[in-house]
TrEMBL record:
Pfam families: Peptidase_M16_C (PF05193). This is Putative Zn-dependent peptidase. Residues 191-364 form the Peptidase M16 C-terminal domain. It comes from Acetivibrio clariflavus (strain DSM 19732 / NBRC 101661 / EBR45) (Clostridium clariflavum). InterPro entries: Metalloenz_LuxS/M16, MPP/UQCRC_Complex, Peptidase_M16_C. Transmembrane segments: none annotated. GO terms for molecular function: metal ion binding.
Length: 429
């Protein structure tokens, strides 16, 4: 292990072996430490549902803690430690995360091995699952398949997020990004205790792994974690394909989905064609903030406040895929008018009609949002994981400084590069 002195909040790669990279974030800002383990796969129809099922089944029990209750009781013994796991996607990466948050050793009433005990539990859950006849327990797999199907089917309950997700999925229907991170109900129906266990071996042995140790650790505790990770039997490590960002649009298309809704959802998707490791990304951040990043933005002030066309309206970036989406909740009858006002804001951006208030407030909004990341260990870890995936090495302060250097002309240039791809309308009519 590298012997380095870290300043507060700085991240450092301390070990790399067998496709596993270990990073340490040294900070004494919190009374808890956290260990995050991320497995990375290419987002694919073939594996999406299985990858989503794995953490759900693994959390049900291990050899030494065969039930959820056993795990919960042990977490209580660790002064109320918190364990969680799940899947997400960043660009066209599907990421399976395991996470444990626990009190720092120095606050644990003389307990000197709390970090080791906490990691032992996390390691046990990931590497030593409870089995039956050499495969996963059928009962656990069937129950988690039912839960996962219900989760997928419940997407429609949050109409705001559903509208955004569907717009982006329609845009990217022939690309890996168009795959929902939890897969499909149809694919879940094909999962058995046998083929899921085979997939688990592939997952544990071949997927790249990033481990983040965050908090007040000494080298002895970090070394213990590294030595334990070296016990995992690994073989040829899978190569993760880069996310394809560039795609140009000749003509935007319109998609209408009908559902029983009282309030229509209008989502407009765009291709930015900007890589997350490009210097243009900081310009895009400011462009998005001016356009729809808060109550100071053009969309909020003009679509919602001045014209009363929306209950809510915002724009959001998908950093890793180079996408942007505008989302608005509107009266069904106001669709065309709301769309016109939205397009007017896009044109104003292209023409440089940006007030001092909009420009300065947008920079301040980004600065406030990034500084707030430091208040959460989970957000600090996610920020640093995102830097690795993006191929950048920015600290939060680096991003703030780069955004502050963006000029009005930079924003105008970005505005003239963005291409409308899809207009998605969720309505009852």
């Amino acid at each position: 292990m590298a012997n380095n002195v870290l300043s507060d909040g700085q991240v450092l790669e301390v070990a790399s072996f067998n496709g596993i990279k270990v990073y340490q974030i040294k900070t004494d800002r919190f009374k808890t430490n956290s260990i995050n383990v991320f497995f990375h796969d290419n987002l694919s129809r073939e594996n999406a549902s299985k990858n989503a099922m794995l953490p759900a089944v693994l959390r049900r029990g291990s050899v030494n803690f065969p039930t959820i209750q056993d795990i919960s009781l042990y977490l209580e013994e660790l002064y109320g430690a918190t364990f969680d796991c799940g899947v997400t996607k960043k660009g066209e990466n599907q990421i399976i995360q395991f996470y444990l948050d626990f009190i720092c050793d120095k606050y644990a009433s003389g307990e000197t091995d709390l970090t080791k005990k906490a990691f032992d539990l996390l390691f046990e859950i990931i590497t030593n699952p409870v089995t039956e006849n050499g495969v996963f327990k059928r009962e656990y797999v069937q129950q988690e398949a039912k839960n996962l199907k219900e989760l997928i089917e419940s997407r429609v309950n949050d109409k705001v997020q559903y509208g955004v997700d569907k717009c982006l999925e329609v845009m990217c229907e022939n690309e890996p990004f168009g795959i929902f991170e939890y897969g499909t109900v149809e694919d879940i129906d094909t999962i058995t205790e046998n083929n899921l266990y085979e997939h688990y071996k592939y997952f544990l042995e071949t997927l790249p792994v990033y481990v983040f140790i965050s908090g007040d650790f000494n080298d002895d505790k970090t070394g213990y974690i590294i030595d334990k990770l070296k016990q995992i039997n690994r073989r040829e490590i899978k190569k993760i394909q880069p996310t394809n960002v560039e795609k140009h649009v000749s003509q935007a298309r319109e998609v209408v989905e009908r559902m029983n809704v009282n309030q229509a959802k209008l989502s407009v998707g765009f291709r930015t064609n900007i890589e997350p490791n490009s210097e243009n990304y900081y310009k895009l951040m400011l462009y998005n903030s001016i356009l729809g990043g808060g109550i100071h933005s053009k969309l909020f002030q003009n679509v919602r406040e001045k014209n009363g066309m929306a209950y809510y309206v915002f724009s959001r970036l998908e950093k890793f895929k180079g996408l942007m989406v505008i989302s608005a909740g509107i009266e069904i009858s106001n669709k065309d008018k709301a769309y016109e006002v939205i397009v007017k804001q896009l044109e104003d951006m292209k023409n440089g009609n940006i007030s001092d208030y909009e420009f300065e407030s947008s920079i301040k909004s980004i600065e406030t949002g990034i500084k707030s990341l430091k208040d959460s260990q989970l957000q600090i870890v996610d920020f640093n994981l995102s830097q690795i995936i993006a191929g950048t090495k920015d600290s939060p302060d680096d991003i703030i400084e780069k955004v502050k250097k963006v000029s009005r002309q930079d924003v105008i240039d970005i505005a003239n590069c963005i291409e409308m791809d899809t207009v998605y309308f969720l309505t009852s009519m």
